[in-house]
């Protein structure tokens, strides 16, 4: 074993230097711009920021207020169906209800139909992670190793497709809109595709590769609360069936709040509806499947337009107005303090 003194620098040996290199970067001698904060620059910054935020905020609020929107709550109007759905053993029994309403004025432009839910908490951690992204990509994976439990397999070992609590609780009411024109009833044409995000539709969701969907999902079963298998979601359009179904994709993007709305359909602008929805009497025909009574929830159908700033949400405009007001008031307070101190300096000089 070496002597402890052998590790110490001997006489005549150079001591290693711990000083940084004599460079402009390490010696912090790089050219830099140091702003000189004067009262003029500070006040102009606050007032310009306040003016900008106020103008943007007012524009956003006026834009949001120009949106035409109508909300129809059908939780109580379909009470018979709601009672039927309280018992899960009635999952295979159909129940329909109708809701009449009147548009006093035309809704011009693109009209979007949303479904809204209240008191439905999608932000619980175990709910949010209860999915298999690999399965939704069409891969052959062992869902027992995913976070889908307890919605992974049935007792006989048949895997669920798709698995997880999010997919199992998918909103499955069917809503059709009819226009009552004089003595005739015209069904409003609705678009059920093109409603989801492009990235979700083309990158995050894919069907398993096979010559047809029924064979691709062979050996799997629907989730417990579903009424039909995933490959029967849209038999009319193969590009909107299975995992790439728009309704499924939109539902799988969970909400952060207990009250939320999801895009359901868009009005197809043809014939009488080329300019939007004309004023008159309308009827929603609803196939009631989604129960909300047990968690004291509510269901709504929303018809709304959009503007350049998005949908009917004034929060961003209010936030800009609040920030602009705070910056402007701060500028006035600083101005008052500056004038007061300047008067004191003038008084002492005299």
UniProtKB/TrEMBL annotation:
<keyword id="KW-0812">Transmembrane</keyword>
<dbReference type="InterPro" id="IPR005045">
    <property type="entry name" value="CDC50/LEM3_fam"/>
</dbReference>
<comment type="similarity">
    <text>Belongs to the CDC50/LEM3 family.</text>
</comment>
<feature type="region of interest" description="Disordered">
    <location>
        <begin position="1"/>
        <end position="20"/>
    </location>
</feature>
<dbReference type="GO" id="GO:0005794">
    <property type="term" value="C:Golgi apparatus"/>
</dbReference>
<dbReference type="GO" id="GO:0005783">
    <property type="term" value="C:endoplasmic reticulum"/>
</dbReference>
<keyword id="KW-0472">Membrane</keyword>
<keyword id="KW-0325">Glycoprotein</keyword>
<dbReference type="Pfam" id="PF03381">
    <property type="entry name" value="CDC50"/>
</dbReference>
<dbReference type="GO" id="GO:0005886">
    <property type="term" value="C:plasma membrane"/>
</dbReference>
<protein>
    <recommendedName>
        <fullName>Cell cycle control protein</fullName>
    </recommendedName>
</protein>
<feature type="transmembrane region" description="Helical">
    <location>
        <begin position="315"/>
        <end position="339"/>
    </location>
</feature>
<dbReference type="GO" id="GO:0045332">
    <property type="term" value="P:phospholipid translocation"/>
</dbReference>
<keyword id="KW-1133">Transmembrane helix</keyword>
């Amino acid at each position: 074993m070496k002597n402890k003194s052998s590790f110490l620098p001997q006489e005549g040996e150079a001591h290693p230097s711990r000083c940084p290199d004599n460079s402009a970067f390490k010696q912090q001698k790089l050219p830099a711009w140091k702003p000189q904060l004067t009262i003029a620059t500070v006040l102009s910054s606050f007032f310009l920021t306040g003016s900008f935020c106020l103008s943007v905020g007012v524009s956003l609020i006026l834009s949001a207020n120009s949106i035409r929107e109508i909300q129809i709550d059908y939780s109580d109007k379909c009470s018979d169906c709601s009672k039927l759905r309280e018992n899960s053993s009635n999952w295979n029994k159909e129940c329909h209800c109708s809701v009449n309403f009147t548009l006093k004025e035309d809704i011009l432009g693109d009209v979007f139909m949303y479904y809204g839910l209240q008191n439905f908490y999608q932000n619980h951690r175990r709910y949010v992670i209860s999915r298999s992204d690999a399965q939704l990509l069409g891969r052959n994976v062992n869902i027992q190793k995913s976070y889908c439990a307890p919605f992974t397999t049935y007792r006989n070992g048949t895997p669920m497709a798709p698995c997880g609590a999010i997919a199992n609780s998918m909103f499955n009411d069917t809503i059709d809109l009819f226009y009552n024109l004089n003595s005739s009833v015209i069904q409003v044409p609705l678009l059920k595709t093109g409603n989801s995000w492009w990235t979700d539709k083309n990158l995050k969701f894919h069907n398993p590769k096979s010559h047809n969907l029924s064979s691709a999902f062979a050996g799997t079963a629907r989730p417990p609360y579903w009424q039909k298998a995933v490959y029967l979601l849209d038999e009319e359009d193969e590009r909107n069936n299975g995992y790439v179904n728009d309704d499924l994709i939109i539902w799988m993007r969970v909400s952060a709040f207990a009250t939320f709305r999801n895009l359901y359909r868009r009005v197809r602008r043809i014939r009488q509806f080329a300019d939007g929805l004309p004023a008159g009497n309308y009827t929603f025909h609803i196939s009631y499947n989604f129960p909300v009574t047990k968690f004291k929830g509510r269901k709504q159908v929303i018809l709304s337009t959009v503007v350049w700033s998005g949908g009917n949400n004034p929060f961003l405009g209010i936030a800009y107005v609040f920030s602009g007001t705070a910056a402007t008031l701060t500028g006035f307070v600083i101005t008052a303090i500056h004038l007061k101190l300047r008067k004191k300096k003038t008084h002492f000089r005299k």
